[in-house]
Amino acid sequence: MSTQPTQAGLDAYWMPYSSNREFKANPRMITGAEGAYYMDDRGRRIFDGLSGLWTCGAGHNRTEISSAISKQLGELDYAPAFQFGHNKAFELAERLAAMAPGDLNRVFYVNSGSEAADTATKIARAYWRQSGQPNKTRLIGRAKGYHGASWGGISFGGIGNNRKLWGHALDADHIHHTWRPEQAFTQGSPEDGAERADELLDRIALHDASNIAAVIVEPFSGSAGVIIPPVGYLKRLREICTEHNILLIFDEVITGFGRAGATFGADAFDVVPDMICCAKQITNGVIPMGAVLIKDEIYRAFMEAGGAEHNIELPHGYTYSGHPVACAAALATLDLLERDQLIPRVAEMAPYFEQAIHSLKGLAHILDIRNYGFAAGLSIAHKDGDPAIRPYKIAMDLWEKGFYVRYGGDTLQLGLPFITESHEIDSLINAMGESIKNAE
Ligand code: PMP
């Protein structure tokens, strides 16, 4: 079977978040995968330095997951989640509730990170309306935040490029991101800057807390190039939200299930939000799935609101919410993470990765290096006013060398598979050093 697309195929497929013209002039085709590696159409093995799209931390083509999927397909291929149930969804909910921090013991299933962020913010608004505070509708995100590509996500998300073709969708506010030039090349969390959370107080002064539903942030922002919060910043956000009766949502689509060297970013930073958005790593990327983990009190408010027995408490959900095959994949993924102790492994290996990635400091064009757990971001100097050209060239040169890393805006992004060995980190960093030097 050919590994190259036909011209008709190239013409027909409008690729998402891609330069279609660039790709179609020079298709880079992935033909297979195993463990921490992709195979390409030239028969090469390529180290997957972003775990897919922050999805496949346990490595690719894990038979533990694919056989759970096959088994599920042999039993129940699909079941409606509205008014009917199947046991895998309940089993997974119990498992997720037990893993979640604090009293986030209720689980709402979705199919993606975008749907998780939409769902959490919709629940926030509905909660306040339900609780007799219908004016608490305003949503607050952060500059450079990424919460998906839906109308909600591009509204409370704060990446300008993702909004420029659409303009105004939902009304939302954005507080600043936490990055400051003086913290460049900090390893892990910057010590100073917790008070940047106090900007939220200005928004509260402006709108009044009686009009604000929720604040949504990534514990560390991924798509913006891995921006790590200063020590105490998330705690301060939590304090302000609690004090002013505003819900705090952590979008853990990237940080959930091990990326931060802990089960959740909430655990890594020791802060319990009111809701957590998950996706990606929840099924090791094998089947689309997402979930929102919700504080007990929020769920109970809906259940206690009354109404007739047959009334729907939350008119929200998706055809594929809690899909049995996705639930089977998620259960197998959680088993695998636990059996192979992959989350503690990330925590254990993170200092090695930190030293390695920071050894690139001093190379031309590198303006900053940031890291946490098995995630890292590098800021690259713009060339001729174009932020993307150098990161693009470096990523393409690395692809030629057999390494996949992501470029986005003026950054390069790394999200190592949790199974990465130290010699693979060494090879990746050596290759990055060379590609960066070649990037003039
Ligand atoms: N939130 C965050 C923090 C993400 O990183 C992403 C995806 N990169 C999303 C939401 C959106 O997820 P999806 O693409 O599955 O809709």
UniProtKB/TrEMBL annotation:
MF terms in GO: adenosylmethionine-8-amino-7-oxononanoate transaminase activity; pyridoxal phosphate binding
Keywords for the protein's UniProt record, in alphabetical order: Aminotransferase, Pyridoxal phosphate, Pyruvate, Transferase
Q: Which cofactors are required for activity?
A: pyridoxal 5'-phosphate
Q: Which superkingdom, per the lineage?
A: Bacteria
* UniProt keyword Mitochondrion, yes or no: no
* InterPro entries, sorted: Aminotrans_3, Aminotrans_3_PPA_site, PyrdxlP-dep_Trfase, PyrdxlP-dep_Trfase_major, PyrdxlP-dep_Trfase_small
- What is one Gene Ontology biological process annotated in the Swiss-Prot or TrEMBL record? biotin biosynthetic process
Its family remark reads:
Belongs to the class-III pyridoxal-phosphate-dependent aminotransferase family.
Q: What is this protein called?
A: Beta-alanine--pyruvate transaminase
